[in-house]
Prior knowledge:
The protein is an all-alpha fold. The protein folds into 2 domains: 2-47, no CATH class; 58-175. It contains 6 helices and no strands. It has helices at 2-7, 12-21, 39-47, 57-85, 88-136, 139-175. The protein is elongated, with a radius of gyration of 22 Å. The chain starts with a helix and ends with a helix.
Amino acid sequence: MLSDIFDLGVGEDFVSKVSEELDRGKTAVIAEIDENWTTPLNRRTESLGGTVLRTCRSDFEDERIAQEVAAHKADFRQLQREYAQASAEAKAKLKVRLDQAKADLERAETRLKTRLDDLEKERVAKIAALEQQAAKAQADAKEEIRRRSEAARAEYDFRSAKLKQAWALTKEALAA
């Protein structure tokens, strides 16, 4: 089912790209792989007559969470404005909706916090693994591992900053 693919963290643009590449009667395999070197998988897949298409799942997940937070914040703010201008009898109904919107925003905040915690754990584990590889590697390989480690740190910093920005928006909305 197509919705299952989106739940796995695959964006619509990636699904379209796969659809364009996939010949009628052929099958696509979607896998989450953390790879340091893409050549072996590419070579083996091509030798079998296949094609490898890649996308970064984490970017899609982070963007989806940020969009969800923005949507909940906008809904919450709109209901706050409506509540402020509503008549006494309309306020009771709006209060229920406002409370639900606040609860949705709080759930989004919790999801965001969990994602940030998971991201930090992932970062620590990946950097530790790269440092272990570097300790065992030859001099020329150490430099490549060091570059990968720096790239991983930069990626995690970027993703973390994006999520923290969304979290700040959530806190701001809930404080109002």
